[in-house]
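Write out the 3D structure for:
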Amino acid sequence: MVATKAFSFPRSHFIGFDHVWSEIERLSNMTENKLYPPHNVVKKDETNFSIELALAGYSQDQLTVEVKEGILVVTGGKEGDIEREYLHRGISAKKFTRTFRLSEHVVVDGADFIDGLLVIDLRVEVPEEKRPRSIPIGNQLLTEAK
C-alpha cells in the first residue's frame, strides 16, 4: 500500500503551526484499531463535558488515565487472560491506547468506572485574563474638554 498525503495545502504559508499540521495528519491516519474503544463526548453545560468509553470486559485495575502535554491518554488491557475455550468471542479484551487532544484550558476533574463505562469529567477553565470583560462607557473626554 502506498502512503498518500491527505492534504496538498502549502504549509509554507503557515509559520508556527507545525503542531496543527501534525494533529491533522495524526487524525487522517487513524485506523479502525485506533478508534477502539467506542466513546461518547457529552456536553453537560457550557464549561463541563465528559468522555464515556465503553469498556465491558475490563476491570478498573486494568485501566489508566493520564494527561501529558495536553493529551488525555487512556490505556487498558489484560496481561494474562484466563485460558478459556471460546465458541464466540465478541467482547474484546485486547490492549488499547486511546488519545484525546485537549484544548489548553481544559482540565480533567476525575474519572469513574461504573458498569463497564469509564467516564472522564472535563471542565473548561479559562483564566481571568482571557475572559471577556466589560468596558465602562463614560464621558471623561467631554469632562476634560470643558
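The CA atoms of residues 71 and 101 lie 5 Å apart.
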